């Protein structure tokens, strides 16, 4: 039996297979999912991990045992599951552990219309009910329909971003042996794009590198391939292909804040005066650019549940995070790395400049990137930082501690899952950014000694 307390996280289910998450657990979760959501029908998809098919099949047995009909979409990315939930009007479950190593698997759940299910919106109830249902078997009564949703997903994305008229582009895509290898060819089919595929073979053992583009070492192959092939840009997807990282023609990373600002401007052109959501550690350039283009920037805590909640509350047209998650009102307020990538391709292909020249318009400040420090006494570290910066800037505690001075700011916040403090700093001047970053790290370091 699985370890329910350990595998049920704030936003999803995730654990080592089979020690923490096994088929018996997945079957119980399937039955509990139907009971808690009251679903008459459910749509299920899964990634390429070896454990994904048996776990998904077990979940389906549990769901059908509670008389729910199941639409089985088979292989898919997480944003394909959101498309399925939105277009079919069904609650959905995606089996994936995203960028985690091969021994992990998990479930991302949503209600009809891709509305996320988290700890305070049903996930806790599903956990508690599933724990009671382990080992309780019943004959499947609901129907099972297998449905290929990939063509519909690709068509839907192409209706949201028109790439048919862009100039020819050469694009290297590193799928990291994840689900991008399945979805990218379908989305790009028939478009004026010369695709250079990198690691498109579906392999949940990730033989080439981890499918996590946030780690710089996982981008090295893509950066080299972009330069060597003379490509216009590169795209890196994570394991379940809901995040996308962009590389320019020089092999340099494009900051997610610049992508957020670029996409925001494009969405504001379609919806003048609309709201744009950004989390508090995206660049200050994002909110400046949004205001300059007539939009309303709204700042949130870090985390997709906060972004999605604010998008739903405000009716925002778009939301972006520093972690390369991008959310769209036209995509049921859900995130889609593929859709963000298509916006970048459209912006590049509609004009003649290189990508580095284009994104220079959206990159105004020097950022530290996220710097993690192992700190046992996080409260003491935050107290000392507050003391050191007293009178030097404005304090804000929406999420951790944000201090904003003249031409600079930093945020220091505790990890939800590890004994880490995460620092992000930014300034108009790189020397000043470095000085602020190093001063904070020195204070934090003294506490951890």
TrEMBL record:
Cofactor(s) the record lists: Mg(2+)
A single GO molecular function term of this UniProt record:
metal ion binding
InterPro entries reported in the protein's UniProt record: A-D-PHexomutase_a/b/a-I (IPR005844), A-D-PHexomutase_a/b/a-I/II/III (IPR016055), A-D-PHexomutase_a/b/a-II (IPR005845), A-D-PHexomutase_a/b/a-III (IPR005846), A-D-PHexomutase_C (IPR005843), A-D-PHexomutase_C_sf (IPR036900), Alpha-D-phosphohexomutase_SF (IPR005841)
Q: Which residues form the Alpha-D-phosphohexomutase C-terminal domain?
A: 370-441
Q: Name one GO biological process term.
A: carbohydrate metabolic process
What CDD domains does the record tag this protein with?
Answer: PMM_PGM
Please indicate which superkingdom the organism of origin belongs to.
Answer: Bacteria
Q: Which ranges carry the Alpha-D-phosphohexomutase alpha/beta/alpha domain?
A: 6-130, 153-251, 260-365
SUPFAM superfamilies reported for this sequence: Phosphoglucomutase, C-terminal domain, Phosphoglucomutase, first 3 domains
Q: What is a single Pfam family found in this protein's UniProt entry?
A: PGM_PMM_IV
Q: Which UniProt keyword terms apply here?
A: Isomerase, Magnesium, Metal-binding, Phosphoprotein
- Spell out the family assignment given in the record's similarity comment: Belongs to the phosphohexose mutase family.
Protein name, UniProt field: Phosphomannomutase/phosphoglucomutase
